[in-house]
Specification:
A two-stranded antiparallel sheet has the order 1-2. The chain has helices spanning about 15-35, 40-60, 65-85, 155-165, 170-175, 185-200, 255-260, 265, 315-330, 330-345, 350-354, and strands at about 280, 285. It is globular. It has one domain (about 15-105, about 150-354). The protein is an all-alpha fold. The longest helix has 22 residues, at about 65-85. It is built from 11 helices and 2 strands, in the order ααααααααββααα. The chain binds a DNA duplex through α6.
Length: about 350
DNA sequence: TTCATGCTGTGAACCTGAAG
DNA sequence: CTTCAGGTTCACAGCATGAA
C-alpha cells in the first residue's frame, strides 16, 4: 500500500492512466468508425474487442477485467457527458452506446431498477409486528445457525458489481451471476443492511464490510482488529476504528460504495478530477485527493439532476433519488446495463473475471 | 377476463457475537 | 454491561403465469 494514496483510492488507476485510456478510446473509436458501417454487428464487436486489446496492451500490468471495467466506466461517463451537454461529446465522438454496440439488447425489460425508496407502499406493514409476540423459537429449539457466514470482501465486491449491472432489486440475478456463493435471499438481506448502512452513514462508528467499495484495495482485515490498524495513514487515512468521530476532520473514512456503484449517474464526469468531494454529514465520502481517478467516484462531485451537492445525509439520499430519476429519464441506466451485457457476450473473459 | 397460485422483493423483528 | 453490526427469518405486497 502506498502511503501517499488515500485508502479509499485503490491506487490502481491514476488520472494520467484514465486520460490515456480516454485518449486511446476516442482515437480508436473514431478510427474504426471510418471502417465499420452502422449496424455491422460483427464489426462493432470486433471494434470493442480491439479497443480493449489496445488498452490492455497499453496497461499490461492491469488485469483484463480491470481494463474492461474501466473502459465501460469511461464509455458511460462520456455518454453521460453527451447526454448532459446535448451538443456533442466531451472528448470527441463516441457512438458506443446509442447502438448498443451494434447488438440488440437481449432483454429491454431489464431496466426495472426501482431506486425510489417508498415507491412501494409500506403502509400496513409497519403495524404488522405485534406487541407481545411469542418468541419465534423455543429456547431449546432454536435452529442451528450453521449457515451464518460473514460476507467476505470479495463477495461484497461481487455484490457491488452485480448491483451495478442488474440494479437494485434484482437479487436473483445478482445471486445467480455474481455472488454465486449466496442465495438471492442472502443477497437481499445483505443489500438491506448495505443500504441501511449508507443511510445511517453519519452515525457510523465501526468498520463494516459495507464500507468496501468496488475498486478498493483491501487495506483491512475482515473485522476490526489490529490486523489492519497499521495500515492507518497519517493525515487522512484510517483511524483505529475505521471511522472518524463526529467533529474530527483530520481523518477521512472510506465510504464510497454507493458512489462507485452509481458513479456514472451520481458523478458528473465533466467535473471529474476536481478536488471537491461530497460529504455525508460530518464525514466525507469522497476524499479529496489530487491523484484521484475520475471514475473512482472519489473526486467528482455528487451531482443530482439540478447539480446540487449533498451536504447532509438526507440531501444525499434525495440526490440519489433524483439521480435515479435522471437515470430513468435519460435511459442511462439501461444504456449502462446494455454495456455490461454486451461486454459479457462479446468478451468471454469478462464473465470469467467478475 | 378473472381467479388462484407461486415466486420474489421489501421492511422489520429478532438473534448472535464483537467492539466500545 | 451496553451498543452496534451482521445475519436469518417472517409477514406482506406485487407481479407473472396458468387454468377455468
Amino acid at each position: 500500500m502506498a502511503a501517499q494514496v488515500a485508502p479509499m483510492i485503490n491506487g490502481e488507476w491514476c488520472p494520467s492512466d484514465i486520460a490515456v485510456m480516454k485518449s486511446l478510446i476516442v482515437k480508436h473509436n473514431n478510427m474504426n468508425n471510418t471502417i465499420i458501417g452502422a449496424g455491422d454487428n460483427d464489426g462493432m464487436n470486433s471494434k470493442h474487442q480491439d479497443i480493449v486489446d489496445v488498452l490492455q496492451a497499453r496497461f499490461p500490468m492491469k488485469e483484463k477485467h480491470q481494463v474492461i471495467d474501466m473502459y465501460v466506466d469511461i464509455v458511460v461517463e462520456m455518454m453521460q457527458c453527451q447526454e448532459k451537454s446535448g451538443t456533442g461529446p466531451m472528448m470527441g465522438g463516441i457512438d458506443l452506446v446509442n447502438d448498443n454496440f451494434g447488438m440488440p439488447v437481449e432483454d429491454p425489460s431489464m431496466n426495472n431498477m426501482d431506486m425510489i425508496p417508498g415507491a412501494r407502499t409500506t403502509e400496513g406493514k409497519r403495524a404488522r409486528k405485534t406487541v407481545g409476540k411469542p418468541p419465534r423459537w423455543p429456547l431449546a429449539a432454536q435452529p442451528e445457525r450453521h449457515n451464518t457466514r460473514f460476507w467476505s470482501t470479495e463477495e461484497h465486491k461481487l455484490f457491488l458489481r452485480g448491483l451495478r449491472v442488474y440494479g437494485r432489486g434484482d437479487w436473483k440475478n445478482i445471486s445467480r451471476h455474481f455472488v454465486k456463493t449466496r442465495t438471492s435471499v442472502q443477497v437481499s438481506s445483505h443489500a438491506q443492511k448495505y443500504f441501511r448502512r449508507l443511510e445511517s452513514a453519519a452515525a457510523r462508528q465501526r468498520y463494516s464490510i459495507n464500507d468496501v467499495g468496488l475498486y478498493d484495495a483491501e487495506p483491512w482485515m475482515a473485522r476490526n482488529s489490529a490486523g489492519w490498524e497499521p495500515l492507518a495513514l497519517a493525515g487522512g487515512g484510517y483511524n483505529a476504528n475505521g471511522y472518524v468521530t463526529r467533529g474530527q476532520a483530520s481523518t477521512q473514512p472510506a465510504m464510497n460504495n454507493l458512489a462507485q456503484v452509481w458513479s456514472p449517474v451520481l458523478y458528473n464526469g465533466s467535473q471529474a478530477n476536481t478536488s471537491q468531494a461530497a460529504w455525508i454529514g460530518d464525514q466525507q465520502i469522497g476524499h479529496a485527493e489530487a491523484a484521484t481517478p475520475a471514475m473512482e467516484g472519489t473526486s467528482g462531485n455528487f451531482v443530482s439532476g439540478d447539480q446540487q451537492e449533498a451536504s447532509t445525509p438526507q440531501q444525499w439520499m434525495n440526490n440519489m433519488q433524483r439521480s435515479t430519476q435522471l437515470k430513468n429519464d435519460e435511459d442511462l441506466g439501461e444504456a449502462q446495463e446494455s454495456l455490461f451485457r454486451v461486454f459479457a457476450r462479446v468478451i468471454p473473459e469478462f464473465e470469467a473475471c467478475i
